[in-house]
Amino acid sequence: MNQHSTTLTQPSPKAGIPPIAIIGILFFIFGFITWLNSVLIPYLKIACELNNFESYLVAFAFYIAYLVMAVPSAMVLKATGFKKGMSFGLVVIALGALIFIPAALTRTYGLFLLGLFVQGTGLALLQTASNPYITILGPLESAAKRISIMGICNKVAGGIAPIALGAVALKDADALTARLHTLTEAVKAEQLNELATRVIMPYIIIVIVLLILATWIYFSTLPEIDTDKEDESVATANVGKTSVLQFPHLMLGVITLFLYVGVEVLAGDSIISYGVSQHISLSTAKFFTTCTLFAMIAGYIVGILCIPKYFSQDKALVVSAILGIVFALAAIFTHGYVSVLCIAFLGFSNSLMWPAIWPLALAGLGRFTKVGSSLLIMGIAGGAIVPLIYGSLVDKFSAQEAYWILVPCYAFILFYATVGHKIRRKITS
């Protein structure tokens, strides 16, 4: 996911690798680490013998860090600056990946969740630090195109990640799952311990790569930026307002972003497990998250080519919400590969929502823009809550019926796209 940033002063160019390439690499890392969760959910469900609700704590532990660590991340960046903050964020992600090693050796689900929370913390810091560069590294009129390019970097990595980890972690998982109930407790424990240790080598490689990148960023030519001046330039705006709560379109925007991130994460993280519930083998289903993310890439390309030449970003949000409802209902009322494909197509529906929600929610905030941005970043916690509710519904009903949760989410996004963002409250001084 790409973050919004406010206008900043254009830095002077420096020698070395172009800063935009460095940010592109960072967005690749965001995507790779984030979408490993789609494999970890079914993998840890087997290895740690979990029910569906417990398995979706993977997404909860990861995304709740955006809510819990948003304010601490801002404090860290104020102390370190943006470039050092990005380097530190990579180190924190590496620490979270390192925790996977004792978690795998002991097959302790709580340690896996701790590792995921630490990784989410590092990503919250890294994204908060890196996103302002997207706007300033080039002309403002082409900022939307750069955001879309960053999104493609993110989702290409997300498409690669589940295939790479799935090839190792889920190898022969179908056969193992089939024979588990026939094994004695001692033999079953031995088999599951072997399964758990499969992630050790991939995560050692991840740790090494992250530490190399952290060192590279620290010594890179990436320019430092100053965001403090932004408040002065908008200090006279909204003089009659005293609180960010006096902007109902922002509050509704936070809810909309919360639900959007929830459905985006759900579409990517649940599709492998859903494929299995539709009697598709894990060896095939492990590719489904990649299909979802490639559908998102197709949406980004449509956005780059068509907005604003053929239609506005606002209209794109309306159409995206309607498509979300259509694909969700189609997934519920069809079966097998067709139903799974409808969940993958949600990636296309979701792709254009993020860049549309941000400007609608922040419109007219003036000096409250930074606070509004912080609230929207906290809305990323929707990726923690919505999949967890889905997992609970799967245990009570079925993986397919649980997708009914998507319909009211997309309906609220449609409401915001058509009516909600226009709601303003007149405040007199």
Topology:
Elements: H1 19-35, H2 37-47, H3 52-55, H4 57-68, H5 70-80, H6 82-106, H7 109-130, H8 132-136, H9 143-169, H10 173-180, H11 185-196, H12 200-218, H13 229-233, H14 248-269, H15 271-277, H16 282-285, H17 288-306, H18 313-333, H19 336-350, H20 354-362, H21 369-378, H22 382-396, H23 406-418
Helix pairs in contact: 1-7, 1-9, 2-9, 2-11, 4-7, 4-22, 5-6, 5-7, 6-7, 6-12, 9-17, 14-19, 14-20, 14-21, 14-22, 14-23, 17-19, 18-19, 18-20, 18-23
Description:
This protein folds into two domains: 17-226, Growth Hormone, Chain: A (Up-down Bundle); 228-423, MFS general substrate transporter like domains (Growth Hormone, Chain: A), CATH 1.20.1250. Helix content is 73%, strand content 0%. It is built from 23 helices and no strands. It has helices at 19-35, 37-47, 52-55, 57-68, 70-80, 82-106, 109-130, 132-136, 143-169, 173-180, 185-196, 200-218, 229-233, 248-269, 271-277, 282-285, 288-306, 313-333, 336-350, 354-362, 369-378, 382-396, 406-418. The model is unreliable at 2-15 (pLDDT under 50). The chain crosses the membrane at residues 20-44, 56-77, 86-103, 109-126, 200-219, 250-267, 287-307, 316-337, 343-364, 371-390, 402-419. One of its GO terms (biological process) is D-glucose transmembrane transport. Keywords: Cell membrane, Membrane, Transmembrane, Transmembrane helix.
